[in-house]
Specification:
binds calcium ion; Immunoglobulin-like; 5-stranded mixed β-sheet; 322 residues; rod-shaped; 2 helices; mainly beta; Bacterial Ig-like domain-containing protein; 4-stranded antiparallel β-sheet; 3 domains
Amino acid sequence: NDDKVTIIATDAAGNETKQLVTVSVKDFVLSTSVVWNNIGDDNNINIAELAMATLSGTVTSTDSTFTDLNIASIVFKQNNTIVHTINTALPVINNNTWTLDHDNAWASKLVDGNCTVVVNLSANSNSITGQGKTVVAIDIVDPDTPVLNFTDTGLSNDGVTKNGTMTVGDLEAGATWQYSIDGGTNFTSGTGSSFILNEGTYTENTIQIKQTDVAGNTSSVFKNMSSVVVDTTNPLFTSATTVDVKTNTEASETIYEATAIDNNAVTYTLEDGNQKDKFTISKEGELRYKQKQATAHNDDKVTIIATDAAGNETRQLVTVSV
Ligand SMILES: [Ca+2]
Ligand SMILES: [Ca+2]
Ligand SMILES: [Ca+2]
Ligand SMILES: [Ca+2]
């Protein structure tokens, strides 16, 4: 501020007047803060937040004598590309503060990713300009609907399993997830990527799973479309361990009916060993000799395996006397 110059004004008659003029060179600093509102404190905008987000700021300047201080434009950039510019009906600066009200006209232009907002200021007939900016993350994509996988032991694809570990798939990195086993009445926070179902029957829609991404967007709810049955109980034999057969009974005749009780369907097979090769058994449990037995004896032994739909097995040794 120390440049001085004397200017001489001279009229046609030669009269002179001098005036010393001091010229000060200043850095005019004009800027504004830019703050997102209604987006929580995570600097991340989710779908619900974007529906009511506003922007505001406070203008800072090194000189209070600016005339016509105003916002010239507000520019939204994503990945260095301008996605929207507001240059009409701009916020008015009042007591150095301004607010951009929510409007779908600009909010709807924003997409997933980092968003930079630049607020351009102007004063003194546009001879002074300045700006402010802020960067925020925008996440307006719902996470995928989780999927449920489990090992369907025993009979395949019947939904009856002895392994109650339910694995949750399609979880997003950083997401939290919840599951319900009562049709969505109560949800429990999940950890890792699986949960354990206790023994029982879980009918259609009883098992529900949802996830929430880091921004707070929640997925659609997975619901099981068919029953899941967890069966960890072995079948219980109720048929006898000994049987008497008359000599010369036809081979086609059932000599013994294996019976085991279980909550789920049971099938019967024979275990290798003993006199297994002398017998056949139907999956319903009908035991027969392969050949007519002509002589009396009481030392034929065979082990019957009862297997439920989940693959749980119980063995019973049966002694056949002819
Ligand atoms: Ca947020
Ligand atoms: Ca997301
Ligand atoms: Ca099964
Ligand atoms: Ca069972």
